Amino acid sequence: MNIIEREKLYSLFRDHEEALGTNRTTITVLQSFINAVKLLRCKREDLLVQYVELIGIIKNTEPRIVPLIHLIEQFETEIEVYADAGYDEIRNQTIRILMQKIELFETMTEKVILAGRQYVMDNDVIITHSASTVVERILIEAKKELGRKFSVIVLKQDFLKTKQMITWLTEAGIDHIIVPEYSLSLQLEKATKMFIGAVSFTHDKQAVAVVGTANVVSFCHINHIPVYLFVKSLKFSHQPCTCQHIYLKVVDMVQDGCVYPLTTHSHDLIDLKLVDHLITENGEIEIGTL
Amino acid sequence: MYDVWLSIIVFIAVYLAITFEIINKAVAVLLGVMVLLVFRVVDEHTAIGFIDFETIMLLLGMMAIVAILKKTMLFSFMSVKIAELTQGSPLKILILFSVVTAFLSTFLNNVTTVLIVIPIVIQLTAGMGLDPKIYVISQAVISNIGGTATLIGDPPNIIIGSKVGLTFNQFIFNLAIPVLIAMSAAMLFIWITHRNQLKPINTNLTKLFSVQLLLEKLRNEFLNVKIDKMFVCKSLVCLAIAICLFVTQAITRISPGVASIFVAMLLFVISKIDVEQMLEEIEWVTLLFFSGLFALVGVLEEKGVIEWLAHNVFLRVGNNPYLMVLMVLWVSGIVSGLLDNVPFTIAMVPIVKLMQESNPIPNNILWWALLLGACFGGNLTMLGASANIVSVGIAKKYKYNISFIEFMRSSALIALITLVISSIYLSIYLWMSI
């Protein structure tokens, strides 16, 4: 695969990440791996070489999808046992192992949701920023399973994401209002908590999250609104934030006759000092102990 | 004599303005009509009398039906399902999407068809590392070929069908065979000339993986809307009623224009859709363009220009029916490839009528020659059909620039092949009819 094709593939990962969030992207990637293996017709000697190429791509996306990398690393270790097996055996084992990884990931997600929903209390007014599967499910289950009475402030960012949030909040019958990101100051009196998810959690205590999250988290932190971060331990990276491959894009913009290069990054970095509660599948973790 | 020359000059000026997109096509024709009215070449009542309201009604009705059908998202759903079926095989993408494009263009207009299909094809092929250009060109070409088969598939069909009184069934019975052969030949040609790019990808895991990710993206992008099944059912039932009315035209005596507007209004009522929003979807510019063109050609006809052209150009070939048919086919094919085929068809209708009166040719073969020429000839260049221009525009939006020459390199030979197929078909048909 040449550099251009590789860039296209990375851009596809980013599109998924932006539209679906890390959780669903991880499952989609694993499922796509399984489907691709089912359709593959190649020589036995090429099979493992092709695995190495694809795994290399998955591990080096921009930004890195840490839970996916952990699951793929586990897959690499487990499939090594079958390195000398026949073509069909390797394929069957690949499918079996990857299915197991999806199940493991889903189980962990369920556990985070189960732990997270306890943090929703009656009369809470919760700020949410971006569509995160975990935050979405926590709020829905708190409403439906625990019968909590609370409301949500959705900070409007790009329309697609906001639309997704409006759709699921409406379907779940959760009271909500939508305000622009820049108007948060006027909602601070009402707000009691902020809930966020993250792509990964780095070795130097930074969370990689959807662009725009850092500003809002800082603002909430300064104003003593507790910030809750919900992540699976699979999202913990062994590397610092500089190794997360956050995608940098410079686009020439033309507005009102003014041409200027606009530099953007695909994700934000949030210092964990700004986060008050870190909840994983094992419950709340004391940030200072990390 | 002054009247005659002015009407010719105005017509040529308008034709050039439309072809080279100097000004908006509706403005160009209406300005032309206004010049003729101001200089009293024709009066307004006569000019309005030239407008063929059957054609306008059929266009208006079908535009309304298509606008509602588009809102159902059914066609996007269908295209994504087809993308899933291809599983990223380049050859399957070419064949299955061509079949879908041809099918859709038989009852939607070609521009609507390419607007639905091409964004999906570009995303799929570009994401797989294939060159989307050939797929874009092939879908544009196939939409022009597929649209030839029915009364409502292409503007020249609507014009000829309405003006001459040809029925929906006559179109299908007479054109299905050449259209199917032409479509197969076009696909074969594309396969032969691009077979290196159409090799299977199932030996490459990374490419297969990319396709799976792409399919998921397409599902999210195009199917992430709730489809109102009731709305879809109502729309499909109404489309079926419209087609039934077209097919049974000989029995019901309901003209296609009346049938389409009746069904469109019925659909507006039963779907409880926002009518004002739907009316905005109708291409009023096209309707004004057609009305103005009818008036311009009507003046030429009244002033005897059309009769002069028929006698001094088209009837010069003599009484040989084969020569007459082939001349109409090739002249319309070449002119439609270089200039807009709508004004050409409107101008040719009275000429072919005169030819038919002076040397009757059975089974409307002369009309089929005009139609096949006007539709297939549209593939000769990028300017030959609206679907070509729109397809190139969509590709540009995705940062794939297709030049005039690049388009012509693939499409012109297909146009010539399909015109040769039409020549053989029409010659055999004529031989069997005489």
- Which spans of chain A of ≥5 residues are poorly predicted at pLDDT below 50? none
Order of helices and strands of chain B: HHHHHHHHHHHHHHHHHHHHHH
Anisotropy-based shape of chain B: globular
| Most extensive interface, chain pair and sizes | A-B, 29 and 20 residues
Q: What would the average pLDDT of chain A be, to the nearest integer?
A: 87
Strand/helix succession of chain A? HHHHEHEHEEEEHEEEEEE
Radius of gyration of chain A: 21 Å
Structural class of chain B: mainly alpha
Span of the ends, CA to CA of chain A = 39 Å
In angstroms, what separates the terminal alpha carbons of chain B? 41 Å
- The share of residues in extended strands of chain A comes to 15-25%
Which keywords apply here?
heterodimer, A: 290 residues, alpha/beta, three-stranded antiparallel beta sheet, B: mainly alpha, 22 helices, 79% helix
In terms of topology, how is this protein built?
The complex is a heterodimer of chains A (290) and B (434).
Chain A: H1 3-39, H2 44-59, H3 66-80, H4 87-116, E1 125-128, H5 133-144, E2 151-156, H6 159-172, E3 175-180, E4 193-196, E5 200-201, E6 206-210, H7 213-222, E7 227-230, E8 248-255, E9 258-265, E10 267-271, E11 277-280, E12 283-285
Parallel strand pairs in A: 1-2, 1-4, 2-3, 4-7, 7-11
Antiparallel strand pairs in A: 5-6, 6-10, 8-9, 11-12
Helix pairs in contact in A: 1-4, 3-4, 4-5, 5-6
Chain B: H1 2-19, H2 25-38, H3 44-49, H4 53-71, H5 74-86, H6 90-107, H7 110-127, H8 132-146, H9 155-164, H10 168-193, H11 205-223, H12 229-247, H13 249-252, H14 256-271, H15 275-281, H16 284-302, H17 305-314, H18 321-338, H19 341-358, H20 365-377, H21 386-397, H22 404-433
